[in-house]
Design brief:
alpha+beta; elongated; about 230 residues; four-stranded antiparallel sheet
Length: about 230
């Protein structure tokens, strides 16, 4: 069974969901797990690697919504819908594996296992709260607030404490950050240059190190939300 290989460190709901998984799928950097508008037949649990969830607007501009890693769930918004289709793109940015769960079978499992359904609803509620806080930052705080809050979230999700600050372990281009912030790459480049001049951050080979996280929080009147909600996952 799929669950046997990954049974350690699993929560109840993930363990139960993995029991419903039909197969493990290898994922390759640069390819897509699914694309917006594609017929949805499966939901996925990321077992290893990283997957970026994004949305394209009518002009072809990309807005990155999540950067998902191990044990994150993607494709969940297709459950209990008529003619389900994926509403986001899921691009693989790091090789790994995912567990594929048939949507119809999972819906039946929820009816049979009320505890699983309740736990999944709790997970969805947390996911909605995370998404709400992200859009609040993007809409209310302007371009600078969007960038600063994105860097803070990246620190919470992928930060590694070093002697000189918090190193974000995921390589990021200016365009990557622009996609997360929903703004132009040129604007991101200017703001990053300002932060580097003030020694708030440094960048080496696409790796950002934050030397003064408190500065970023102060600039956007950070509410110090719990880390489980203030992240990029």
């Amino acid at each position: 069974m799929v669950i046997q290989k990954y049974k350690e460190e699993l929560s109840y709901e993930l363990g139960e969901l993995l029991k419903s998984a039909e197969r493990i799928v290898p994922i390759k950097k640069g390819s897509y797990l699914f694309k917006e508008g594609q017929e949805a037949r499966e939901m996925y649990i990321i077992l290893s690697g990283k997957v970026q969830i994004s949305k394209m607007n009518a002009e072809g501009n990309e807005l990155s919504l999540r950067l998902c890693k191990h044990y994150d769930i993607v494709g969940e918004l297709t459950l209990f819908t008529v003619d389900p289709r994926y509403i986001f793109n899921a691009k693989i940015i790091e090789n790994g594996e995912v567990a594929a769960i048939n949507i119809t079978e999972l819906e039946h499992a929820f009816f049979k296992n009320s505890q699983l359904a309740i736990e999944f609803l709790r997970w969805m509620n947390d996911h909605i709260r995370k998404t709400t806080t992200k859009f609040r930052d993007l809409v209310l705080n302007g371009k600078k607030g969007a960038l600063y809050s994105t860097i803070i979230r990246l620190c919470n999700s992928y930060g590694v404490l070093r002697e000189n600050g918090i190193e974000i372990s995921v390589p990021l281009t200016n365009q990557d950050l622009a996609n997360f912030c929903g703004t132009a790459r040129e604007s991101i480049s200017r703001m990053l240059t300002e932060l580097r001049k003030k020694h708030i951050i440094s960048i080496n080979k696409k790796i950002i190190t934050v030397h003064d996280l408190s500065y970023l929080k102060k600039e956007i009147d950070c509410e110090n939300c719990p880390i489980e909600y203030c992240n990029i996952d």
